[in-house]
């Protein structure tokens, strides 16, 4: 008996497309004198059995045949469409994983040695994960937004992901200008969460339209946990804005589309106590007026409200208004690691800034880690590609 495997194209949103299998029959066994009527009918057995409950959505489905050859196998989802997958030696393996908490129907056809056809069907229900079995993911940036040229696509999981390759295979990024990019897995600073980001080889081109398709419903992440939702999101790349920060020169220069717009004085972290990171740090969020405490970053000595706050790292590096420091802004670095600006300059810059704009900081003692904010831009393209689970 020869085995045949067929894979059909992917379809969204139900993760389901047509699947059919044709298998060439083996030669008949036994003596040549046996009559057609004496040959037994084909017998089919299906796993999961009819009426099965709590079937894991990533497990293969099996059709076994005695006294015959499997000629067709179809798995139909709750929307009535055949599920996408591969069939080999009677085993159907879902391409994307089946949906959780859903009904599926299996129909198998076999031919006996005398050519008579046998059909068997079963219906089963996939696992409905409990709260402890449910994995969630946060997708950034938000759909429909316009972001800066340094903003990666970012998916953060609330538990460790064991089979990263299986998750990454489900993720598809498309752009309107064939932007080259790669996924990479990171461990996020402080939280320790697993995160997978897609960044271009170079900064995005302004005007690029980006779409993510993430059919993750039913995907297993490890330790018996499953994702229960699929995601799509799209966003647009806005104008190119790079804030070049010279720590030793106490200056921030904003470049827009390659042209200098304005230079403003700043103060950065005390180099002996709380130095500011060097490296490329895309703006994560514009948080406005927030309360900053030393305890939140493992320090002591301050607890105050800070206005025009712009987050650069997970660990608590911000660019913000620092009216209390105006006497030495532009001449000394005395902050707790943030980039401080005078009131008027901070107000102007905050209004210009867009999430994803790049702060390119020089003069610090150490380069920010890849998982501390969107620090992946500090890795070479070759080293970033190595962080993909599919390489």
Task: Please render the helix and strand layout as text.
Blueprint: E1 43-47, E2 61-66, E3 68-76, E4 85-88, E5 91-94, E6 103-112, E7 117-125, E8 134-135, E9 137-140, E10 146-147, E11 153-157, H1 164-169, E12 172-175, E13 181-187, E14 194-200, E15 209-214, E16 220-222, E17 225-227, E18 231-237, E19 241-246, E20 251-256, E21 259-265, E22 279-282, E23 285-293, E24 303-311, E25 318-321, E26 339-341, H2 343-352, E27 358-362, H3 381-385
Parallel strand pairs: 8-17, 10-18, 19-27, 25-26
Antiparallel strand pairs: 1-2, 2-5, 3-6, 4-5, 6-7, 9-11, 11-14, 12-15, 13-14, 15-18, 16-17, 19-20, 20-21, 22-27, 23-24, 24-25
Mass-distribution shape: elongated
Domain module count: 3
Integer average pLDDT: 88
- The number of helical segments is 3
Radius of gyration: 29 Å
Q: Do you know the CATH topology of the largest domain?
A: L,D-transpeptidase catalytic domain-like
Q: Would you identify the CATH H-level superfamily of the largest domain? A: L,D-transpeptidase catalytic domain-like
Q: What would you call the structural class?
A: mainly beta
Measured by DSSP, the beta-strand proportion falls in 35-45%
Question: Could you state the order of secondary-structure elements as H and E?
Answer: EEEEEEEEEEEHEEEEEEEEEEEEEEEHEH
Q: In the CATH classification, which architecture of the largest domain applies?
A: Beta Barrel
| Secondary structure: helix percent | under 10%
Task: Tally the beta strands.
Answer: 27
Q: What would CATH call the class of the largest domain?
A: Mainly Beta
State the low-pLDDT regions, or none: 1-34
């Amino acid at each position: 008996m020869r085995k045949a495997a067929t894979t059909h194209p992917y379809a969204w949103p139900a993760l389901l497309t047509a699947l059919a299998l044709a298998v060439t029959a083996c030669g008949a066994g036994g003596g040549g004198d046996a009559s057609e009527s004496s040959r037994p009918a084909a017998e089919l057995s299906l796993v999961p059995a009819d009426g099965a409950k709590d079937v894991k959505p990533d497990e293969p489905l099996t059709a076994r045949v005695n006294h015959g050859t499997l000629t067709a196998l179809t798995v139909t989802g709750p929307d009535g469409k055949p599920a996408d997958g591969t069939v080999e030696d009677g085993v159907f393996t879902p391409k994307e994983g089946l949906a959780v908490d859903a009904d599926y129907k299996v129909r198998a056809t076999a031919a006996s040695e005398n050519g008579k056809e046998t059909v068997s069907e079963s219906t089963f229900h996939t696992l409905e994960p409990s709260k402890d079995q449910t994995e969630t993911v946060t997708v950034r940036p938000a759909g429909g937004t316009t972001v800066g040229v340094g903003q990666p696509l970012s998916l953060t999981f609330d538990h460790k992901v064991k089979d990263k390759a299986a998750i990454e295979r489900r993720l598809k990024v498309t752009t309107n200008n064939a932007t080259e990019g790669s996924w990479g897995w990171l461990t996020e600073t402080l939280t320790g969460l697993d995160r997978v980001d897609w960044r271009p080889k170079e900064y995005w081109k302004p005007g690029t339209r980006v779409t993510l398709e993430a059919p993750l419903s039913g995907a297993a992440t490890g330790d018996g946990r499953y994702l229960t939702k699929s995601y799509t999101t799209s966003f647009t790349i806005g104008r190119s804005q790079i804030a070049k920060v010279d720590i030793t020169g106490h200056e921030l220069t904003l470049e827009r589309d390659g042209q200098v717009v304005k230079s403003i004085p700043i103060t950065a972290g005390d180099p002996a106590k709380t130095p500011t990171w060097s490296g490329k740090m895309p703006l994560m969020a514009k948080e406005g007026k927030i309360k900053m405490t030393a305890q939140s970053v493992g320090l002591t000595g301050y607890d105050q409200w800070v206005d025009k706050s712009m987050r650069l790292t997970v660990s608590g590096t911000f660019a913000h208004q620092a009216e209390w420091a105006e006497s030495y802004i532009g001449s000394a670095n005395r902050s707790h690691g943030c980039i401080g600006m005078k009131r008027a300059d901070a107000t102007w810059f905050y209004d210009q800034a867009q999430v994803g704009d790049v702060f390119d900081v020089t003069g610090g003692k150490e380069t920010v880690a890849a998982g501390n904010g969107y620090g992946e831009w500090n890795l070479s393209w070759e080293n970033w590609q190595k962080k993909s689970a599919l390489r």
